[in-house]
C-alpha cells in the first residue's frame, strides 16, 4: 500500500504531488555530497556536474520528442508558466498586446495573465463546455491581428479533462500566434511527442511524476521568440539565469525516463482503478456528479461533486479514516472559495463546494480504492444528515 505521512495512510492526492521513486532518489544522492560541483565551473567537478545536467536534458528531450537544446530547466512548473507567458508576450509586444487563455487554467497561468493586464495587455478568457473542453473554433475566433500568445493547458489538474491541444495548436500555427500549453499534469502520464505536436512552448514539473520538488522545465521550440525571465548569469544557454539545481535536474531526467516507459502499463492500471471508484460511488451514493469529460480525461483522475455537503468537512473525515484526498488544486487549498474550474463548467457555488478529487499514481492499488468505497458513503450520509441545505 502506498503511504504518505503517518503509516497506513492511503494517499489519493497525486495531482498535488507524488512520492519520489526510489530509483530517482538513488540517482540524485551523489550530486548532493560527492559530485557537488557547480555546473558552470571549468574544473573537474564542475565539468562532471555539467555532464550530468546535459545527460538529464537528453533524457527529458527524448521522453517528449524534443531536441535537447529546446529544453530549459527551471525551478518549478509555475516558473515555467510565468516565463513562457511573460516572455512570449513581451517579445511580441511590437506586434500587439492581446493574449488569450481559458477560464479553467491553473492560477500559475491565470495570475500571470492578470499581471500582464496591469502592464497594459488585453486578455481574453475563453469559456469551456460542461465537461471542461475548450472549442478550437473559439480559439480561432478570439485571435486578432494584435494577438501574440495563446495559452491552453494540456489537461486540467482538477477535473482531468484532456484538451484538443493538437487542433488548437494548428489554429495558432495558421494564424502565426505563439502557442503555449501548461502540461504539468500531463507530462509523464500521457504520451507526448513534440516533434509532431504543433506546440511552441510546454511547461512541466518533476514532482508530479515521482521526481523531486523544486525543478521544472520549459520546452521552447527552436525559433520561438521569448524574452528572458530570470536575469544574472549565463546558465541555460543564456536564457534562464541561476545556478543549476544539479541533483534536482538529474532526478527529473531519471523520473521522466521511467515515467515515459511506464505510460502504457500504468495508464491501463489507473484507468481500471478510477473506473471502479466511479462505479462504486455512483452506485452507492445518491446526488453525485462526475466532473470532467467521461472519456477525454487523465487516466488517474476522478472528480466528484456531492450535493448538500461541504468539501472541507468531507476531506477531514476522510483523513480521520486514513485517506488523503483533495477538493481541487493544492495551490488554493487554503481558500474558502469554490473551485474556479467547477464554476466555469457550470456547477452552482453550493455544489462546487462539495467536490472531491481522487488522483492516483503508479503506486495506487485496487485495494486502496476499495478502502475509499468502504468509508465514503457513510461519511457523505453523515454530513448530509447535518447539512442545512435542502
Average pLDDT, rounded to a whole number, is 94
Envelope shape: globular
* Major β-sheet profile: 7 strands, mixed
Share in helix: 40-55%
Query: Uncertain spans, ≥5 residues at pLDDT below 50?
Result: 1-6
Distance between the termini: 39 Å
- The computed structural class is alpha/beta
- What is Rg? 21 Å
For the secondary structure, the number of strands is 12
SS element count, helices: 13
Spatial ordering of strands, largest sheet? 2-8-7-6-5-3-4
Could you give the order of the helices and strands? EHHHEHEHEHEHEEEHHEEHEHHEH
Question: DSSP strand (E) fraction?
Answer: 5-15%
What would you say this structure looks like, in words?
There is one protein chain. This protein is an alpha/beta fold and 390 residues long. The chain has 13 helices and twelve strands. Helix 1 (22-28) runs antiparallel to helix 9 (246-284), helix 4 packs parallel to helix 5 (107-118) and helix 9 (246-284) packs across helix 13 (366-386).
